[in-house]
Amino acid sequence: MSRPLILVSNDDGITSKGIRVLVSIMKRLGEVIVVAPDSPQSGMGHAITIGETLRLYEEDIFEEVVAYKSSGTPADCVKLAKHYVLKDRTPDLVVSGINHGSNTSISVLYSGTMSAAIEGALEGLPSIGFSLCDYSSKADFSHVEEWVEKIAKQVLENGIPKGIALNVNFPPMQKEAIRGIKVCRQADAKWQEEFAERFDPNGRKYFWMAGNFVNFDKGEDNDEWAIANNYVSIVPCQYDLTAHHAITQMNKDWDWESLKR
Amino acid sequence: MSRPLILVSNDDGITSKGIRVLVSIMKRLGEVIVVAPDSPQSGMGHAITIGETLRLYEEDIFEEVVAYKSSGTPADCVKLAKHYVLKDRTPDLVVSGINHGSNTSISVLYSGTMSAAIEGALEGLPSIGFSLCDYSSKADFSHVEEWVEKIAKQVLENGIPKGIALNVNFPPMQKEAIRGIKVCRQADAKWQEEFAERFDPNGRKYFWMAGNFVNFDKGEDNDEWAIANNYVSIVPCQYDLTAHHAITQMNKDWDWESLKR
C-alpha cells in the first residue's frame, strides 16, 4: 500500500513552531507536502486574494519535505496546492496548524487555520485544523503530539463525513495529562470588543482592537467546556451556513402578501 | 414611535455605487449611520484586523447621513460601529451592500458583504447582506430598489430568528421584471480554481487566481436556482458551523478504543 499524501498548511506562517511540529508528526504517517503563507495570517477568516497577484516559492525549510511559501492567505494556499502544486495528485488528508492560540467557539469564523481546513473540505478532502489554546510563539506542544498523531491516523483510517472539516483544539500544557477527546458542538460565546484609542506623532487618532471573550454557554457538550476541563475538543464543521429551521419559520411568520410583486 | 436606527456597511468601499443606493433606500425607513471600508475589500471573508492599527474618519459623503470610513475589513467596520461609534445606542437593523457581484452558494464564505451581516447577527442584531449578481461597477440597481425596501421593512416589522443573518441576492437587470422572492438553502456549488502564470520584469513568476463556478446542485430550493429563474433569493445564515449530525456519526464510527489516553 502506498503511503498517504498529506498536505500541510497553517495561518501563523511557514516559519512558525506550530507548523514545524505538525510536519514532523505527519512525516510518520505519510508523504508530506507543505504550502503555507510566507507571513502570519491570523484573523484572516476565509479571505482569498482577488484582484491581486499571488507569489509561490519553493522553500527548503523542512527536512525531506517539499515545501512552498505563498504570499496568499491560508485559503489561497490550499487552492494553490490543490489546483497548481498537486494538479495531478489528490491528497489523502489536509491538515492545518498547529495554531498558536485557541480556535474554539466563535473564533472558528475568524480563524485562518480553520479556513485552510474548510477549503480542504470544500475540495472533498478529509481535513483537520489543529490549534493549541496557548498564544505564545514559544508554546510547548509536547503534550499534544500523541493526540495529533492519533486523530490524523483515525481520519486516514476511518474517514470523516464528506464535506466536514474537524476543528481540533488542545488545552495548554498543564500539570495533569490531557484527559481524552470530546466530540463537541461549537460553544455559544463571543468576543466583546473594546477599541483602545491612541494618537500618532501627527496627532491623528488610531485604534487597537482588543476584546474580552464572553461565554454564554452553560452546556457541557461544547468546545469551551472541553478545553476548560482539560479535554481535546473536536467540532465537526460544515460550510453550508443555511439555518434550515429558519426557512420554515420565515415562510410562516413573514407577511408574504406585502412581499409580492 | 421613534425612527429605527439603521447601520449600513459594505465590502466594495464607501464610494461604491451599491452603498449609495442602499443608503438612499434606508433613509426612507429610518435614521442611517454608515461605517464602511475606505477601499474595496472583496473576498475578505470574515477577516478581522489583529496586531495592526485601525483608522476611522468621519466622511461627509452622503446627504444628511453621518458616515465613517475605516481602514479595516467589513467585520471590523461593524465592530467599530457597535462598540465605538454607537457605543450607547443599539441599531434596529444592520444592512450590508449592495454588493457588486453574486454572493450565492459557497461565495457566502468568501464574502466581505456577508461577513458584515454575520458580524451584526453575532451582536444579536437583525442583519441583512444584499448582493446584485452583476459585477460591473456601473451595475444597474433600479430593478432591485423596491425589493431592498420591502425586505428591510419586513425585517424591521416581523424580525428574523435570533442569530440569523439574511443573505439576499438579486438577479441582474433583465427584460422581464423580477418574479418574486424565494427563501432558499445555500446551493451546493464551488469555484474550480485555475491559476494563470505570468512573469514580472525581473523574470519572477506570479499568479492570478481565476475560477469557474461549478454547480452540482440539481434542486429547485436553492439560491442558484432562484437567481437563474429571476427570483430574489434569501438564505438565512447561521454562524454555528457545527455539523451536528456528524457528532453522532463520529461517536459511532470511530475506533474510540485507540483514541483513549
TrEMBL record, chains A, B:
It is found in: Cytoplasm. GO terms for cellular component: cytoplasm. The keyword Methyltransferase does not apply. It catalyses: a ribonucleoside 5'-phosphate + H2O = a ribonucleoside + phosphate. Residues 6-193 form the Survival protein SurE-like phosphatase/nucleotidase domain. Binds 1 divalent metal cation per subunit. Nucleotidase that shows phosphatase activity on nucleoside 5'-monophosphates. This is 5'-nucleotidase SurE. The lineage of its organism: Bacteria, Pseudomonadati, Bacteroidota, Cytophagia, Cytophagales.
